[in-house]
């Protein structure tokens, strides 16, 4: 995921904003504990959403503690204590970091490839500590499929987005059965599709300039057609994905900790769209 899946903080109640921050900080600690201190530098809002969804689906009991951390040593913070779903999110994050790094090394050029090459030894250790061989195999399989489409300059945005959506669906539903697995798969699928398409929209001009693959470059006969589509019609597609995602999250049996669902709903119904609008505005100002 690419940093879009975060809350719209002004719309959160103070107690829910504090709860979200405690999950974010708790995931950071869990990553340090299970996949090594350096992995905490890859902490993301996206994986915090992943952890929230897993905790909601499992109706995880939550507890908190006040600690000082290395990033904020002068003031104690309220942090979610480690639990099974937080640990799983931390380990999955480690796997994704490694395979994204490998993907960049295989497909990128110049500075991005050099950065991936430098990061790879650390990412390999993070993945080893994550110790999720089944998840690693699934992640590699899907990212290789996605890489193949990108190398072919696939002109069908939906096809590439589907692969990323299916991957997140597999990761989010892993270990679940029946209705719970189906709901988790739907949440992961629509989150992945939206993120992939949103990232492609946001990076369109940058990808043209840097000669990187972007499905919208090849989906139209001219740049004028592509830009017209991206400035109007694509918003309808992204809105439909968010609506499908909201319907999927609404199928979660309400967990005992109500703040989990309030945070998830805030992210899906306002945070993700706001993140994209903000990112596109910054790109336009460059």
Detailed description of the structure:
This protein has helices spanning 14-35, 45-58, 84-107, 110-130, 133-151, 157-173, 178-202, 204-210, 215-218, 223-231, 233-249, 258-285, and strands at residues 64-67, 77-80. With 286 residues, the chain is mainly α. Helix 2 runs antiparallel to helix 7 and helix 7 runs antiparallel to helix 11 (233-249). The chain is built from twelve helices and two strands, in the order ααββαααααααααα. It has one domain: Farnesyl Diphosphate Synthase, CATH 1.10.600.10. A two-stranded antiparallel ribbon has the order 1-2. 72% of the residues lie in helices and 3% in strands.
Number of domains: 1
Low-confidence stretches: none
Number of strands: 2
The CATH architecture is Orthogonal Bundle
pLDDT averaged residue by residue: 93
Q: What is the CATH topology classification name?
A: Farnesyl Diphosphate Synthase
- In the sheet with the most strands, the strands line up as 1-2
CATH class term: Mainly Alpha
Largest sheet entry: 2 strands, antiparallel
CATH-assigned homologous superfamily: Farnesyl Diphosphate Synthase
General form: globular
Task: Round the Cα radius of gyration to an integer and report it.
Answer: 19 Å
State the order of secondary-structure elements, H for helix, E for strand: HHEEHHHHHHHHHH
Derived from helix and strand composition plus strand pairing, the structural class reads mainly alpha
Q: Helix count, per DSSP?
A: 12
Helix % is over 70%
Tell me what portion of residues adopts beta-strand conformation.
under 5%
Distance between the termini: 23 Å
């Amino acid at each position: 995921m690419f940093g879009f899946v975060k809350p719209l903080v002004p719309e959160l109640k103070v107690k829910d904003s504090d709860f979200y921050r405690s999950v974010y900080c708790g995931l950071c600690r869990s990553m340090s504990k299970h996949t090594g201190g350096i992995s905490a530098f890859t902490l993301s809002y996206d994986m915090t959403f992943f952890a929230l969804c897993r905790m909601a689906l499992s109706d995880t009991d939550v507890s908190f503690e006040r600690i000082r951390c290395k990033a904020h040593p002068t003031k104690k913070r309220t942090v979610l204590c480690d639990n099974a779903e937080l640990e799983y999110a931390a380990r999955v994050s480690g796997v994704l970091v490694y395979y994204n790094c490998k993907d960049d090394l295989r497909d990128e050029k110049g500075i991005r490839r050099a950065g991936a090459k430098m990061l790879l030894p650390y990412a390999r250790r993070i993945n080893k500590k994550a110790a999720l061989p089944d998840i690693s195999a699934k992640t590699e399989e899907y990212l290789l499929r996605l890489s193949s489409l990108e190398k072919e300059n696939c002109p069908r945005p939906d096809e590439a987005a589907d692969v990323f959506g299916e991957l997140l669906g597999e990761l989010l539903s892993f270990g679940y059965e029946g209705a719970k697995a189906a709901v988790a798969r739907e949440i992961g699928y629509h989150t992945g599709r939206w993120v992939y398409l949103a990232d492609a929209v946001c990076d369109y001009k940058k990808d043209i300039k840097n000669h990187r693959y972007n499905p919208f470059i090849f989906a139209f006969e001219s740049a004028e057609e592509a830009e017209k589509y991206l400035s109007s019609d694509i918003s309808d597609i992204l809105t439909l994905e968010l609506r499908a995602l909201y319907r999927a999250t609404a199928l979660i049996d309400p967990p005992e900790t109500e703040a989990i669902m309030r945070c998830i709903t805030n992210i899906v119904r306002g945070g993700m769209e706001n993140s994209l609008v903000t990112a596109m505005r910054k790109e336009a100002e460059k």
